[in-house]
Amino acid sequence: ASQPSSQPAAKPAEKSLGVGDQGYLRMVSNPTEDVLLATTEKAMEEITKYSIAGDTMGIAQMVLAGRANFVPAGTKVLVIDRNFGGRRVRIIEGEFTGADGWTPYEFIQSK
Fold first, then answer.
1. Looking at CB atoms within 10 Å, which of 22, 60, 73, 82 has the fewest?
2. First-to-last CA distance in the chain?
3. By CB neighbour count within 10 A (0-12 exposed, 13-18 middle, 19+ buried), where does 64 fall?
4. pLDDT band, residue 3 (cuts 50/70/90)
5. What number of other Cβ atoms are within 10 A of residue 15's Cβ?
6. b/e map of 70-79 (b: 16 or more CB within 10 Å)?
């Protein structure tokens, strides 16, 4: 017979948002920092590689080339597409209303 566990129940992680959901762009590590929004799915993958490598110059070159843009933290978005690691969003409030781009799914919060 198995013994009941005395371990506390794990706190459920926030469900990642899917297509049709609305949320807010926010960095997990720094909720007030601007979020980098890639113009394409491929550009998002490239930014992720640069971030892991600590290559800030590579990220800056992508921004200068128009392949990514900084968007203010807390910007309201609508999820319009998804892949394994990211979400394509359309900005629905603020100065970039109507623009779209790709970001890692964990940078889109429900509140």
1. 60
2. 44
3. exposed
4. low
5. 8
6. ebebebebbb
